[in-house]
Amino acid sequence: MTPYRIAQLIVVLHFLSDWVFQSRKIAENKSKSIVYMVYHLCVIHLTMCVVAPFFNIPFLMVFINTVSHGIIDMTIWRGFKRFRGPFSDEYIEKNEYAKDYWFYTTIAIDQTIRLCILFWIFKGAMTNG
User: Fold this and answer.
1) Half-sphere exposure at residue 99, Cβ-oriented, CA atoms within 13 angstroms
2) pLDDT digits (tens, 9 = 90+) for 27-86
3) Domains: count for the chain
4) 64: Cβ–Cβ under 8 A, 6 or more apart, which residues?
5) pLDDT of residue 44
6) Distance from C-alpha of 76 to C-alpha of 82, rounded to nearest angstrom
7) How many CA atoms lie within 13 A of 43 on its CB side?
8) Which of 67, 76, 73, 77 is nearest to 118 (CA)?
9) Considering the chain, what is the average pLDDT of its residues?
């Protein structure tokens, strides 16, 4: 399998584990509860671990992906509340547009950071392995 196919596979696995295999309940609670966060990270990690050996994806790459995923999940949503400007919790809860705007902006930032990390890890794995 070519390095580019492995990179594509990693991105597909990421989106499966972060979107398809994650329930709404986990998504809403993972930044509030360590139990939900650990469960979510187990799903992320196991999804990659099941496929990694078949495509020679280094375990270190899978581990770094899981750890960075957890760090991003724990910080991005706290940052969302801190950096949303002058809008109060009450304003955002009452205003659907503002709520959607900040939610989707945060998701876009979140996924951009994740993809950069995935490709950085992949590049390192390909040059060192």
Assistant:
1) 8
2) 878 878 899 999 999 999 999 898 888 877 778 888 888 999 899 888 877 776 666 666
3) 1
4) 117, 121
5) 92
6) 10
7) 18
8) 67
9) 80
| Consecutive H or E run containing 78 | helix 59-82
Question: Residue 116 above 60 pLDDT?
Answer: yes
pLDDT score for 124: 67
Two tokens, residue 36: 């939900």
The pLDDT of residue 89: 65
Q: Which long-range contacts (CB under 8 A, 24 or more apart) does 116-124 make?
A: 117/64, 117/65, 117/68, 117/72, 118/7, 118/10, 118/11, 118/14, 118/65, 119/7, 121/61, 121/64, 121/65, 121/68, 122/3, 122/6, 122/7, 122/10, 122/61, 124/61
Contact call for residues 6 and 55 (beta carbons, < 8 A): yes
Q: Return the structure tokens found at 20.
A: 């398809």
The predicted structure's pLDDT at residue 13:
86
What residues make up the domain containing 9? Answer: 3-128
